[in-house]
Amino acid sequence: MEIDNYYDIVVEKLIGWSELLVKMLPNLVLAIVVLIAFVFAGKLIRNLSEKLLNRAINNQSLTSIISKVIYVMVVTIGAFAALTLLDLDKTVSSLLAGAGIIGLALGFAFQDIATNFIAGFFMAIKRPFKIGQVIHCEGHSGIIKHIGIRTTEITSFQGQEVIIPNKMLFQNPLVNDSENTYKRIDLNVGVSYGEDLERVRDIAIESVRNTPNINKNKDIDLVYLAFGSSSIDFRIMIWVEFKSQLEFLKSQSEAIIAIKKAFDKEDIMIPFPIRTLDFGIKGGEKLNEVFPQETMQVNSGKEANQ
Q: Which residue of 30, 177, 224, 228 pairs with 134 in a disulfide if CB–CB is 3.0 to 4.6 A?
């Protein structure tokens, strides 16, 4: 008897579901059509957004991610619309609430990753640098090899591959050497207190006029900085064309060589550190040239007698 009752209940349920299915069949068909339409619309919008973003951003990885996000959003809207047509409003509300909670949890769990993605997005729009340019940021320097949505890869001047999170490049001061055609060489030099400073200035400026890659349209500036412990310090500033980091360093090296040669030729003293004993105003004098010969002989005699 109990088995018959269970059988009747099951049959009743199946009949009720069958009637409900027949009743909802038009809405079910319409929901499927709506979902398929949104899928095709999502693909169309994705392809269109890729073309537009490639023109605006010119970053393939970022363009791909944004277009895929747009596609998923369109399909998701279509799925919710299809569920609404099936009178599953409570299910839609539950899904939205669940998605909100999951999104919040993922946001906290992957905060750094999300920050890097957002930084990569804004950098792709602003374009502070390009592949092949030389940048310096937070102690890292090199040539940009790849710009990703989450990280940027550079090749250091020593040949090392360095992967930098986009958050670091976005939030910290960034120097882009390749944005400007010319870069200034600053050389700090010291000369003896006994030198004629005006003469030193003229000789130093003249010595670097043929520095490789020099910009002849800009003046060579020299300013005296301070009275140092063993020298009078000055800075000479030369503008050169920035072709690469190596070429810049070569120009700087040639300027140093030129100044040293000119000072040697003109007998201009670049003093040693204060630990060096200097006998004479210009430094490097011999004792027998500073003191009279008789004084040296008297002192030597006294030492011999002792």
A: 177
